[in-house]
């Protein structure tokens, strides 16, 4: 496990010859904000940093804090900007991606951190205006859509010999299996557990929190195997002190939530400290699939040959064995070739409705 000092030293050694382009979806708060700020400091502001989110006011304050390079020749080769997007709306995500593709020639880093206003709440689950589970919409569907739609820009960066890294920040390393039924949690939303005084635990919310992790394993497996020339990472931020890190519960469970949050205050790390570990993981990879923990350590990794041909549903006896990606054992990875293929097919059918 690298110490904070080791992660910071590793980050400090990174000095690209080009102006990096970074898109951070969820960059207006929490871990995403921390990563954006760390990248801005590391590059001394000489980077094209795009924050995607809903809070323009928060974005303006963050961008104002970035270092602003002084260009002696008068040519400004850096940009810091905010792009508004409601990641609960797949139509909105698709429009934003189309706009970015129309004006950007490459993207070096695509980082996705948005988890929604309810975060890890287990007391409520519903549907978005588009009919998607409101936990999975931001924790998975929007991330899949960003990955697919912006992949050409990552590949362009790689073709120019530059860093090209897709990173999703959620809950890597827990061997969370991808189920074979009720992928959209439609059936789960019909079930809840009622406690005293009407306190309700939503089964769909619990499953949404857990399945978001599993589905992100499937996401990185799919894109890493199909695009072996770039780096693809699922990473866990661990317990981080952010404005959305508190446990949410009904009034009857408030004492339990208070105790939980009190204990977590001693085991959580700061947003800035977490960002250094996340940045270390972002810079410490050339190509391949990476499952990483909250300190940026590699739980498991596999580098495919540049001409690798992905396979997910085949006649091999291992196609349904969890923890194997195209026959390669991956510690901390919960997918199987068959369940990943089913998940992606389901995802494509769902997202086809939002164009």
Automatic annotation (TrEMBL):
The keyword 4Fe-4S is annotated on this UniProt entry: no
Transmembrane regions listed in the UniProt entry: 248-269
Keywords in alphabetical order: Membrane, Oxidoreductase, Transmembrane, Transmembrane helix
Keyword Metal-binding found: no
Superkingdom of source: Eukaryota
SUPFAM superfamilies per UniProt: NAD(P)-binding Rossmann-fold domains (SSF51735)
Pfam families, per database record: adh_short
GO molecular function terms noted in the UniProt entry: oxidoreductase activity
Record protein name field: NAD(P)-binding protein
UniProt organism field: Mycena metata
């Amino acid at each position: 496990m690298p110490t904070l000092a080791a992660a910071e030293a590793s980050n400090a050694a990174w000095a690209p010859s080009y102006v990096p382009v970074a898109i951070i979806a969820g960059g207006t708060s929490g871990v995403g904000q921390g990563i954006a700020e760390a990248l801005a400091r590391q590059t001394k502001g000489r980077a094209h940093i795009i924050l995607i989110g809903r809070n323009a006011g928060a974005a303006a304050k963050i961008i104002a804090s970035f270092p602003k390079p002084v260009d002696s020749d008068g040519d400004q080769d850096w940009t810091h900007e905010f792009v508004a997007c409601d990641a609960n709306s797949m139509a909105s995500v698709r429009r934003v991606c189309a706009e970015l593709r129309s004006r950007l020639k490459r993207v070096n880093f695509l980082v996705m951190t948005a988890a929604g206003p309810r975060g890890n709440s287990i007391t409520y689950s519903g549907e978005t205006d588009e009919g998607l589970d409101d936990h999975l919409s931001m924790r998975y569907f929007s991330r899949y859509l960003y990955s697919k739609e912006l992949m050409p820009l990552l590949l362009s960066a790689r073709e120019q010999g530059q860093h090209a890294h897709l990173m999703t920040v959620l809950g890597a390393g827990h061997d969370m299996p991808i189920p074979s039924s009720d992928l959209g949690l439609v059936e789960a939303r019909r079930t809840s557990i009622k406690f005293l005084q009407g306190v309700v635990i939503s089964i769909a919310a619990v499953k949404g929190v857990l399945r978001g992790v599993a589905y992100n394993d499937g996401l990185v497996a799919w894109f890493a195997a199909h695009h072996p020339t770039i780096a693809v990472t699922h990473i866990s931020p661990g317990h981080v002190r952010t404005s959305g890190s508190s446990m949410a519960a009904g009034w009857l469970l408030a004492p339990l939530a208070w105790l939980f949050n009190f204990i977590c205050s001693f085991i959580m790390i700061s947003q800035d400290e977490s960002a250094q570990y996340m940045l270390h993981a972002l810079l410490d990879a050339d190509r391949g699939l990476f499952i990483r923990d909250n300190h940026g350590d590699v739980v498991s990794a596999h580098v495919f040959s540049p001409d690798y041909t992905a396979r997910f549903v085949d006649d091999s006896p291992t196609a349904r064995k969890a923890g194997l990606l195209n026959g390669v054992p991956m510690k901390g990875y919960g997918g199987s070739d068959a369940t990943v293929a089913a998940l992606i097919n389901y995802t494509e059918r769902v997202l086809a409705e939002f164009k």
